[in-house]
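Need the bound structure for zinc ion, inputs here:
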Amino acid sequence: MSQRIKTAIAGSLPKPAWLAEPEKLWAPWHLSGVQLEQAKHDAMRLAVDDQLRAGITVIGDGEQTRQHFVTTFIESLSGVDFVNRKTVRIRNRYDAAVPVVVDAVTRKKSVFVEDAKKLRALTKGLIKFTLPGPMTMVDTLYDDYYKSRAKLAWAFAEILNQEAKELASVGVDIIQFDEPAFNVFFDEVKDWGVKTLEHAAKDLGCKSAVHICYGYGIEANIKWKNGLGEEWRQYEQVFPLLAKSSIDQVSLECINSRVPMELIALLKGKDVLVGAIDVANNQIETPEQVANVLRQAAKYADVKHIYGCTNCGMVPLAREVALAKLHALAAGADLFSQEIGLK
Ligand SMILES: [Zn+2]
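Answer from helper R.:
Posting the output first, comments after.
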């Protein structure tokens, strides 16, 4: 097997225009019933094909079957009322009318296992499947039942662990939990966040990953980022805890951010999925720009632990932009691999 630097996407890719409205979060589906189910899986095949043709080495489903990375999972659980919503502040940044936890949350059946089987059938290579992290799930809801963010998160971790074990059993190689909330609620991360995440990832029999970012390029996030100062040192609080945890991989934001690269050194021993593709602009990175990010990262982590990745999901981008960025990511990783004699 080739020893070159591996590449992966953080999670989502844009959906085809016949499936959902393009360049929009929470875009409504254009189809329904059996047609919708078929169309979602057709879109997944295209997403996989795009990654393979670009030369990406860890393949995801591009989240083609989900409307949103958190809510689609929660919709499959019982105990949450999606009709009578309440307004809360999400990640201390923006208000949204969110579903309400009204009873004990449970998973009646598997949520993504059929999707994972389909993804498994599409490539013999490594596959990654993403799930929302417990803290981020809590931060997307109003809780009228547990009255404790930690308790609700633990209940979600139990559910996520059941789901993740099932995904691993059908051949998923890496299960990634998305925890953008880890970049905001540092006391909670320390008190119960990492512990709860580890519980979600317990005894999977495959690798586990966590993705922590500064969010999509939406207005509320851009405003928040502008107020974070010259250097973004949020990861400094979280990485030492993750380094001590059972989580195998950490996906983080790098290119065009103000994250000091040296913070990667805090993740000693972990695989580092280095964000070398900006998802908040339409400019296509050159392979040299991607290689340069990986080169900088290699000053602080062993190259055997470095993966080239995107800063975050690419769902809000135009399809052709995302595709060009996939090619740039793979080409940049190849360039750096050659440079250090891995190819
Ligand atoms: Zn992200």
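Comments: The chain has ten helices and eleven strands. The pocket of zinc ion is lined by residues 10, 180, 211, 213, 312-313 (CB under 6 Å).
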